[in-house]
Automatic annotation (TrEMBL):
Name of protein: GNAT family N-acetyltransferase
Domain of life from the UniProt record: Bacteria
EC numbers on record: 2.3.1.-
A Pfam family of this chain: Acetyltransf_10
Length: 141
């Protein structure tokens, strides 16, 4: 595998790539209804794209309040540290913006992944789009 590059994306210019990844992961694979996947936060969020050899393979977004979401990696690249590279870029940008706390709603199966990045569970389990989630929080050092 080549090196993974992560960059801040532009919602307008990179829309096709952002949508391709999120539609594949959330709508096609996880059966999230499209009306739940696309929301008004996308227009104002800071979006991130992960690339391998110029091909977009993962995405995430950061909201102005420090909430991280829509973290997704295409199936063929899972388990190759793409998610970690994405999350480290998002956390670094959040801290650069002075957001000392980062929050996310994690799918329960991914809790250990986020814990390795410094997040801890702050809620009981709940269903979002029919998928078990927990809220998690990370405080900058």
């Amino acid at each position: 595998m080549s090196e993974i590059d992560v960059r801040i994306a532009d919602w307008q210019r990179d829309n096709a790539e952002l949508r391709r990844i999120r539609e594949t992961v959330f709508i096609a694979e996880q059966s999230v209804p499209p009306e739940l996947e696309w929301d008004s936060d996308d227009a104002d969020a800071v979006h991130f794209l992960a690339f391998e050899d110029g091909y977009a393979i993962g995405t995430a977004r950061l909201l102005g309040d420090g909430h991280i979401g829509r973290v997704s990696v295409l199936r063929d690249w899972r388990g190759m540290n793409v998610g970690e590279a994405l999350m480290r870029a998002v956390i670094a940008e959040a801290e650069r913006r002075g957001l000392e706390e980062q929050r996310l709603s994690a799918q329960v199966h991914a809790t250990a992944f986020y814990e390795r990045l410094g997040f801890h569970v702050i809620s009981e389990e709940f269903l979002e789009a029919g998928i078990p989630h927990v809220d998690m929080l990370r405080k900058s050092q």
